[in-house]
Amino acid sequence: MRPPRLALLMLLTTACGAPCKPAQGSTVVAAPAPAATTPAPEVRGEASGDADGSGDGSGDGSGACGHYADPIRRGELPAVLDEASGLTSSRWSGDRIWAHNDSGDSARLFALDRSGKLLATVSLEGAKSKDWEDIARGPCAPGEAARSCLYVADMGDNKEKRDEVRFYRFAEPEKLSAEMTVSAFETMELRYPGGPVNAEAMFVDEQARVVILSKEEDQTSIFVAPFAAGGPVTATKVGERKLAGGNLFVRELVTAADYDASRRRVAFRTYHHAYEWRLPAGAGAEALGALTPEALPLALEPQGEAIAYLPGGLVTTSETAGSPLFYYDCRP
User: Fold this and answer.
1) How far apart are alpha carbons 253 and 266 in whole angstroms?
2) Would the pTM of this model clear 0.85, i.e. be above it?
3) Mean pLDDT by 10 residues, the chain (332 residues)
4) Of 7, 131, 218, 298, which sees the most CB atoms within 10 A?
5) Inter-residue contact 187 to 161 (CB < 8 Å)
6) Which domains does the chain have, with CATH numbers?
7) φ, ψ for residue 84, nearest 5 deg
8) What are phi and psi of 236, to 5 degrees?
9) Which of 317, 314, 275 lies closest to 296 in space, CA to CA?
């Protein structure tokens, strides 16, 4: 969803938040992340759990990433993704990314490799696409690690007029062909407890719960709803968090989120900053409002609305045609 015009005009002068420097291997300027209040211990090798980030969530949040390197441009989106609004990783291949467009496109997803090459177009037969805003990968049922499902959030509501928003869930295709159609999917209608909410960011936890981060000025509210086909299901508000990165000209507005179950981390972004929560062992989304998110490096992107964990780091992109794919590698 497009930000206010003034925010766009001021974006390039506010995105860094600190003196900027070129990212290694790229001409793009990035804002370096402040040091964590409590440095993560150095861990060599991969974190516990599956390498694709689909572990059981029993870790302590430290994992192999003490911090993330500055962004490096390693590809760009294909022409068909002219308004990319969501990214997530694949269970079946560390080189595969799932993406989709914002409002205006049909109900379809795109499988890409890490360079942005289009691998497959997957249409959801009979699904609607009013305003798709985010995509997540998670278990197909609570605690089920053997299967992988994709969740798509048709929840855009910039004017807060939708009494119900919609989520789709279906098994992630393991084998791809250039054009694919999925007819076996579940649909959940969702309501918020206090009426319509503007939200563009969501992820799915180990219990197949949809976790939604609202798009409010300089803060976000956190809602949770167990995925249940049909509905309407009423989400539960479990917390809220103030965001300190805004200023007089540009407000912090959360536009995307993702969850790494193996390292128990939640990454989320605004138009000009990115953050990460590190969940303590045993904690769930209910704890997020009380945790202070750590700032992450973020490339200068004119309309940033996507962030996702991948094996070995993070990826972001922007909601404009031909946008670069930026990668942020894990560092001890």
Assistant:
1) 16
2) no
3) 44 36 35 33 30 39 80 96 96 97 94 98 97 97 90 97 98 97 98 98 97 97 97 96 88 97 96 96 96 96 95 95 96 94
4) 298
5) no
6) 5-331 (2.120.10)
7) -60, 130
8) -110, 130
9) 275
